[in-house]
Design brief:
Helix content is 14%, strand content 38%. The chain has 152 residues and is mostly beta strands. The strands form two sheets. A five-stranded mixed β-sheet has the order 2-3-4-5-6.
């Protein structure tokens, strides 16, 4: 999803609201998005304040994955908010908040996917206090003690 921003870069005070969805079909092109099971809903704005163009947006989606501790499948809603400064020329700043818009165009899909992947934890758990599997018998300890490692 490409947003043309030439006018925004040139006119101080201009603002463009964002209210869109990234369909699941578009997400299939990106590795790391297989766990997303709903379109990504994006709401926010792009505005030029005193010559600096900024993007503020939030996104929501549902994901389904296997727990890295107990191997049960789980589904949850996710909501993240992000802020970026948009620039038309490549910046020497090595900053995750600065986004280069080649030819005054912003690829919102690529940016949103990149932001999501950076925000998701490296270990996905069904719940924060997941007990995992018994190392001896393999029983899911969230469902009760197995008895074989109670003496440890």
């Amino acid at each position: 999803m490409i947003w043309q921003l030439k006018r925004l870069f040139e006119r101080i005070g201009d603002r463009q609201d964002i209210d869109c969805e990234i369909p699941l079909e578009e997400l299939r092109d990106y590795s790391g998005c297989k766990s997303i099971v709903t379109p990504i809903s994006i709401k926010g704005s792009i505005q030029n304040r005193a010559g600096m163009v900024s993007l503020d947006y939030s996104l929501t989606f549902r994901m389904r994955s296997l727990c890295d501790r107990c191997l049960d499948e789980f589904e949850r809603s996710c909501c993240f908010s992000f802020e970026h400064i948009l620039v038309r020329s490549e910046s020497e700043l090595d900053d995750d908040t600065v986004c280069y818009c080649e030819n005054s165009a912003l690829d919102l899909t690529a940016l949103a996917v990149s932001d999501i992947l950076a925000e998701l934890p490296t270990k996905l758990l069904c719940k924060e206090d997941c007990k995992g599997l018994c190392p001896v018998c393999g029983k899911n300890l969230n469902r009760g003690d197995c008895g074989c490692c109670a003496d440890e």
